[in-house]
Design goal:
Length: 680
């Protein structure tokens, strides 16, 4: 374990003033008022909630106009942008702009969710749970209840309904979403300016990125009409101004036990990094073949580089001696308080011990579970669709409340959106990825592994991959839609999915019974202990659902230097070298004289963010859009486990840079006019 930059900065207080990713139904307004002299009222919170959206490709966004205009990050929209690209039309590299609505391009499988309402359904989820039940049985009963609640909710409302687990299983809330799938690309800048600085500058600050993309949402073929959107305030925030962030942060681990953190540190993260690095090497080798291969692989490479850097930061936090000592001290304090409370001790027994045993069990099969069931084994779009077909057919024969979670009735429409997508699948890329995956599976699981031998059937990984890909018709959307009986299909990729499915299901059941069920039941006990002893003022770990965070716009001190909160166009041009990754697009070179050097480009705040917050709107006290989150700095990565505002910062694109770029660099006057009109 090593000592890191933030280890001596942890404070003894249970929470810093601006810590927390808060449920919109439980915003601590008085705490905000006490710290900042201002608190949003119910109407302010409602407007922000109804203007904020979730991109199911893995990020957040917001409406900035009444006619369905949505802004998110370029890297959140990149999946759609890549799928819309083709040979000779490299929108990811060259950018895209539709001056009129008839020139917009519809994303083939993008779903955006707008949160309408939430309700506590804990009692319904636990209705059939009995005190003497084993954790595995409790887990199954709760999942069955969740499926029933979701199905009933969707049938009654016509909305997407998801039951979300909060506080490690202590509470369950149903989230009702308006689902939008007619989403059309309006504008995306070139990759060189959206991701200026590339991987070397990723998770750093200062930054100089225009990481934005605009889409229009349609309803029944017409522009969606909205009651709530965020007016864009070009002037943006000043140093020290309080800003708020509304978005959908990905999974955090601040409430995990020491045993759970140690599993991540010693088993999960090292394995994941090894797989990601090996995959990145293989994909880079494919991209080096020619220009078209580089175009096909570009978004995949970005995703892998981003994941490697993020997980490296998470692992670094858990390898920090003082951070882990702090977490251990907090856990021991809580356990000692339980030990001296006879009533509480009898009620919860030893949940920490139970969780430690579950993690020990999981460590014994983590790798195999991750490869065969967790999605890390076979990196192939064709295989993913084959597996979905095989499981969809099987799960459709099972009662809704007994199905695998992703195949429940309320989720089938979203599932099929991806399954039947018209997005292109590239055979050469499939072969390269699958060959690497098979080779890696053989290396990790061993030559003698039964499944490895059956998958390869005496062939090299390259030959097996070629035969699986060429022997499959799943690249054809029409074939996928017509595939009624995958259990009888002789499609090569379907046969591969059928081969792996029994073992994958066995591992999933083992995980759900021995690990997930214990984590849910025992984790809920620890949450109840916290509530009983410390009150209900805490926030739950993030779950890729809508949360509110806030903090002032302030710089930080790093390695003896004061880092200012803002960067400018002038700094961008000074940073540019003309070579990747510090190359600005030719358009920016040509239009330099038309831009003001003092235009603010990026800025930082202490807002508590993570993962899926990419694309989150940053708003001021008046509820105006002043920027868009696109990253955190490297000091913010350990915030997955412990929040610090000493050097950790949320990084955003400034509203002034967005409007100035549209008008002065891209000549996108109609889009800029639409934004300005909506702000009046």
């Amino acid at each position: 374990m090593r000592r890191s930059f933030f280890s001596l900065l942890l404070v003894a207080a249970p929470a810093l003033a601006d810590e927390g990713m808060w449920l919109f139904s439980a915003v601590p307004t008085e705490a905000i008022r006490s710290a900042h002299g201002f608190a949003p009222d119910a109407r302010w919170i409602e407007r922000l909630r109804m203007a904020s959206v979730r991109f199911n490709s893995g990020g957040s966004g917001s409406f900035v106009g009444p006619d369905g205009l949505v802004i998110t990050n370029h890297h959140v929209g990149a999946d759609c942008i890549q799928k819309l690209s083709a040979p000779g039309k490299d929108y990811l590299r060259d950018g895209f702009y539709a001056p009129t609505r008839d020139q917009e391009l519809r994303c083939p499988d993008l779903e955006i969710n707008l949160l309408y309402s939430t309700d506590d359904v804990t009692a319904q989820v636990n209705e059939r749970v009995k005190p003497a039940m084993k954790e595995a049985v409790v887990n199954r009963e709760q999942k069955a209840a969740m499926a029933r609640i979701e199905k009933d909710c969707t049938e009654k409302t016509g909305l997407r309904c998801d039951v979300v687990t909060l506080y490690q299983g202590m509470l369950f809330h149903v989230y009702r979403y308006r689902k939008m799938t007619d989403v059309r690309l309006v504008f995306a800048p070139e990759m060189d300016i959206a991701f200026f600085g590339g991987d070397p500058d990723n998770f750093t600050y200062p930054r100089f990125d225009l990481d934005i993309a605009f889409f229009h949402v349609y309803q029944d073929g017409k522009p969606a009409r909205l009651d709530h959107w965020l007016p864009v305030h070009q002037a943006g925030p000043a140093p020290g101004d309080l800003v708020f962030v509304a978005g959908n942060p990905g999974t955090t681990g601040r409430l995990l036990t020491m045993a759970q953190l140690e599993l991540l540190r010693d088993t999960a993260y090292p394995f994941q990094l090894g797989e990601l690095r090996a995959s990145l090497d293989a994909i880079r080798a494919f991209a080096a073949r020619d220009a078209e291969s580089e175009r096909i692989a570009r978004d995949k490479i970005f995703g892998l580089e981003n994941a490697i850097k993020a997980i490296t930061g998470f692992l670094g936090g858990l390898q920090d001696t003082d951070l882990m000592r702090r977490k251990q001290a907090q856990e021991l304090t809580l356990r000692s308080r339980v030990a001296v409370d006879e009533k509480l001790r009898k009620e919860v027994a030893d949940p920490w011990g139970a969780l430690a045993k579950a993690q020990e069990s999981y460590a014994s099969f983590y790798v195999r579970h991750a490869l065969l069931e967790g999605g890390r084994g076979l990196d192939s779009d064709l295989f993913a669709k084959a597996r979905t077909h095989v499981r969809l057919a099987a799960e459709s024969k099972v009662p809704n409340d007994k199905r695998l979670r992703e195949y429940r009735e309320s989720n089938l429409e979203s599932l099929k959106l991806g399954l039947y997508s018209e997005a292109p699948i590239y055979p050469t890329f499939e072969r390269a990825r699958l060959a690497h995956s098979l080779s890696r599976m053989r290396q990790v699981l061993g030559d003698r592994d039964k499944l490895v031998k059956e998958m390869l059937a005496g062939r090299t990984p390259e030959d097996a991959a070629r035969q699986y890909v060429t022997g499959s018709r799943l690249g054809d959307p029409a074939f996928r839609r017509s595939l009624a009986n995958p259990e009888k299909s002789d499609d090569a990729m379907i046969r591969l999915a059928r081969l792996l499915d029994p073992e994958a299901r066995r591992l999933r059941k083992r995980f759900e019974d021995q690990v997930e069920g214990v984590e849910r039941v025992e984790g809920a006990k620890i949450a109840r202990v916290r509530f009983r002893l410390d009150g209900t003022s805490g926030y739950p770990d993030a779950t890729f659902t809508l949360r509110l965070a806030w903090g002032p716009v302030v710089g930080f001190r790093d390695q003896g230097q004061e880092i200012a909160p803002f960067t400018t166009f002038a700094g961008l041009y000074q940073r540019a070298t003309g070579k990747h990754p510090y190359r600005v697009p030719q358009r920016w070179v040509d239009k330099r004289a038309a831009t003001r050097p003092d235009v603010k480009l990026n800025f930082v705040s202490t807002a508590d963010i993570h993962g899926g917050n990419s694309g989150s709107p940053v708003v001021d006290r008046a509820g105006r859009f002043v920027g868009i989150i696109f990253d955190s700095n490297i000091h913010g990565l350990p915030n997955r486990f412990v929040y610090s505002d000493t050097r950790a910062r949320a990084v955003a694109v400034h509203a002034e840079a967005i409007l100035q770029s549209l008008r002065k660099v891209y000549g996108a006057q109609p889009l800029a006019d639409e934004i300005d009109k909506a702000a009046k």
